[in-house]
Amino acid sequence: MSSTIWSVDDHLADILDAVKPLEPIELQLADAQGCVLVEDVVVRIALPPFDNSSMDGYAVRVADVTGASEEFPSVLTVLGDVAAGNDGLPGGGVVGPGQAARIMTGAPLPKGAEAVVPVEWTDGGTGEGPATTMRAHRDAPEGASGEVRVYRAATAGAHVRASGSDVKPGDLALAAGSVVGPPQVGLLAAIGRATVKVRPRPRVVVVSTGSELVQPGEELAGGQIYDSNSYALTAAARDAGALSYRVGAVTDDAETLRATIEDQLIRADLVVTTGGVSVGAYDVVKEALSSVGDEDEPGSGIDFRTLAMQPGKPQGFGSIGAEHIPLMALPGNPVSAYVSFELFVRPAIRRLMGLEEVHRPTVRAALTTSEALSSPAGKRQFLRGSYDEVSGTVVPVGGSGSHLIAALARADALIVVPEDVTSVEPGTETEVVLLR
Ligand code: AMP
Ligand code: MG
Q1: Which of 42, 73, 113, 138 qualifies as a cystine partner to 59, CB 3.0-4.6 A?
Q2: Given a cut of 60, is residue 166 above it in pLDDT?
Q3: How far, in Å, from the CA of 162 to the mean position of ligand 1?
């Protein structure tokens, strides 16, 4: 236990200094969502791979429709259909002078054609004036070809999506460091990539401690409360981008806790515990974590600290086991645990992921209160608040009590009161950490 009091910034810097991005792995595309790319992805094919129609209509030669109007339509012989998935006209047919091919959206422009006339600018092959649908030429008798009346001219390339107009072979699709979000997954799939090299999602194991804890769904006996921390922090870890595993509550017994954590190390890139880090008689986390996975090295790598912060004064941080898995021991009060998670664990998870930006966004907002807020001297206080973007104001939600779970659930921001400020007047501009 360090005797010095740590500032929030120093504790955070110590964590971010110690936690390194995970080693990259090759992941299936569907599993790479939310991960950071570690390779430059270069396109091997053109997108679109071939010239294709952006409309349902008729593939034509420009000269054949020059000057076409409703009064003087161009009448063209329809050779047949080109549907999406066809490789041009049947039998490699070519659209010659006076000819057209019926074409569907996404179908390749057949040989000889230079433009597409949307069906709305034709009679759709019906001989009955402007059309909104097309007559099915594929139903026409063998060898017979219908006619289409075209009412407007088209320039070369009209309604044609040119090959390579999106990307060309050799183009950089995504640079290393990009986050694979849904549109990036789409791009990777579109260029045919089945796997990508990324940093994996960190596996975060959440263990709550406390003999008073009961799992939701069970009956509460006297003196018992429901274990909310393991649920909240498992959810928060997932929200931060991790694969999170909720172990649930372990009783206040050092040996049980030690064995539980040791069992979990196999699937952990980060272990988070809650409770048992203050100075009470049953605060077993300190006792248990002095030798996890490292029997010959007592007093191993977890440092239990006092932080100049409220809530969240007691914190433990270090690494455990032969693999030196980082472990963060958070205080047990639900608000303290959650605020500690937001301030310290979330950035650590994002560092493990290899993200550049590990912090929540902050803004400055005017405090809306009826009376001045008081804050302890020498501590950075994090009050729960509700932020209004339109007016640029933030209103405190609930009080400073670190047991106020309902207020936390109504908050979407943390109001930061600096160490040297003991009173904040209504209307004062304050720093606000946005939680959503
Ligand atoms: P501790 O840090 O273990 O002394 O716990 C501080 C306070 O937080 C006590 O009132 C505990 O009952 C409460 N607490 C600890 N762990 C949890 C948990 N997982 N869920 C809800 N409350 C908890
Ligand atoms: Mg406890």
Answers
A1: 113
A2: yes
A3: 63
Q: Which residue among 131, 161, 191 closes a domain? A: 161
Q: Indicate which CATH number applies to the domain containing 428.
A: 2.40.340.10
CA distance 325 to 330: 16
Question: Do residues 261 and 125 both lie within one domain?
Answer: no
pLDDT of residue 402: 87
Cβ partners under 8 Å of residue 310, min gap 6: 375, 376, 379, 380, 381, 382, 400
Closest ligand to Cα 272: 1
Determine the Cα–Cα distance for residues 95 and 114; give it in Å rounded to an integer.
9
CB 97 within 8 A of CB 112: no
Q: How many CB atoms lie within 10 A of CB 406?
A: 10
pLDDT at 299 over 90: no
Ligand 1, atom 5, residue with closest C-alpha: 332
Q: Go through 344-356 and write b for each residue having 16 or more CB atoms within 10 A of its CB, e for each that does not.
A: bbbbbbbbbbbbe
Domain span holding position 169: 25-48+164-199
Q: Is it the case that residue 202 has pLDDT exceeding 80?
A: yes
Indicate the residue among 153, 173, 199 that finishes a domain: 199
